[in-house]
């Protein structure tokens, strides 16, 4: 899994098991130091040896703090401060 900051720079790479459905990124860079608060994206890269076979955006989740209608579109503000369109949400879980 490749972690990129909001500028698209790679800040970490995390090995992902092919048998585990969940992987947790610790919020640390490749040097083991905590990264600044902000928006990060995760992509999954599949390889056959050194050959890159595919790249896909990893599914992530976050707690919704607010929903607003902006320009006739429902926008969700996550607890991290990130704002996403409700149309990009693929699942909802019960709160704890």
From TrEMBL:
Keywords: Cell projection, Cilium, Flagellum. InterPro entries: FlgD/Vpr_Ig-like (IPR025965). Pfam families: FlgD_ig. Residues 2-49 form the FlgD/Vpr Ig-like domain. This is Flagellar basal body rod modification protein. It comes from Ruegeria atlantica. The lineage of its organism: Bacteria, Pseudomonadati, Pseudomonadota, Alphaproteobacteria, Rhodobacterales.
């Amino acid at each position: 899994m490749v972690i990129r900051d909001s500028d698209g720079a790679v800040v970490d790479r995390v090995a992902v098991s092919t048998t585990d459905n969940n992987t947790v990124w610790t919020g640390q860079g490749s040097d083991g130091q905590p990264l600044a608060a902000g928006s990060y994206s995760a992509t999954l890269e599949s390889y056959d040896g050194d050959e890159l076979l595919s790249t896909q955006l990893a599914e992530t989740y976050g707690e919704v703090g607010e929903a607003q209608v902006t320009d006739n579109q429902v926008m969700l503000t996550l607890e991290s401060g990130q704002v996403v369109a409700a149309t990009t949400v693929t699942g909802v879980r019960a709160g704890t």
